[in-house]
Amino acid sequence: MTHGRANILLLLAGAIWGFGFVAQSTAMASVKPFMFVAIRFFLAALTVLPLAIREAKNARQGLTQRDYLGFFFIGLLLFSGAALQQVGMLTSSVTNAGFLTGLYVVMVPILGVFLFWQWPHPVVWPCAMTALAGIYLLSGGRLDGLTVGDWLIVGCAVFWALQIIFINRIGVQSGRPIMLCLVQYLVCGILGLLVSMTSERTELFSILAAGPELIFAGVLSSGVGFTLQAVGQRFTTAPQAAIMLSSEALFAAIFGMILLGERLTLQGLVGCALIFSAMIAVELIPMLRNKSRLEDQGRPAGNQGKSGHVLPGE
Question: Which compartment or compartments is the protein found in (predicted)?
Fold first, then answer.
């Protein structure tokens, strides 16, 4: 798979997440947070199970215990982010939640430097800040007084960022993205169920009432969305993946306008333009620089000055 196709998969994941944000929020009226997480990821596991079996049959070599431990660790990161986001949305406004979740865009390159001294391509920094500014404008250009729920969602953004980083550092090496997804979904489902059984009371009728939202969040947002993320990240860097995935805010605004009749203000349109510009720049600028470097290397030595730069007038 090419780098460009991988980014298309990440964009598609962002589109699915943007569409499913409302479903995730409205389901909270019927289902408690940890039960929602449990059912969501059990449905996601069922969604990818046939694909994981097929992937295992076609694999050239089996997975090691170290691979499974890595998958389990990534599952813990995913569960921590999903749980903090779901609990935080009980007291956080949709506006605040949308912006604060998007903080992972800038956290990915920052944490990559602090944890592994892994410096991204220079274009990532301005693109990440541009995408974050776009998310901020889409969210209304302001934050209400921060609640406990808001701070929980900030914590969620930290775990989203760590999950993106470790998929690149652990999951990609195995060459088994579907099995990675199956394991992390099962980890989230089991942990969510255990916490729910000890701290929540959920009735069957409330689960049935939130059935459509749970199916969408489980099958599409999780089963399809996170799987597209894992597959796409095999062929791109974590900081670039974070910027492409931040398109969820852009698609949430677009779907809200098309399906719910919501109108984008001038401020929102500027936010959309900033996110779109960041995604285009993080894809095209490194590509153009590499192309220019290859062209310079292919020039005859006689066409270059002593410094090695191309002489004027060529």
Answer: Cell membrane
- Three-class secondary structure assignment of the chain: CCHHHHHHHHHHHHHHHHHHHHHHHHHHHCCCHHHHHHHHHHHHHHHHHHHHHHHHHHCCCCCCHHHHHHHHHHHHHHHHHHHHHHHHCCCCCHHHHHHHHCCHHHHHHHHHHHHHCCCCCCCHHHHHHHHHHHHHHHCCCCCCCCCHHHHHHHHHHHHHHHHHHHHHHHHHHHCCHHHHHHHHHHHHHHHHHHHHHHHCCCCHHHHHHCHHHHHHHHHHHHHHHHHHHHHHHHHCCHHHHHHHHCHHHHHHHHHHHHHCCCCCCHHHHHHHHHHHHHHHHHHHHHHHHHHHHHHHHCCCHHHECCCCCECCCC
pTM of the entire predicted model: 0.76
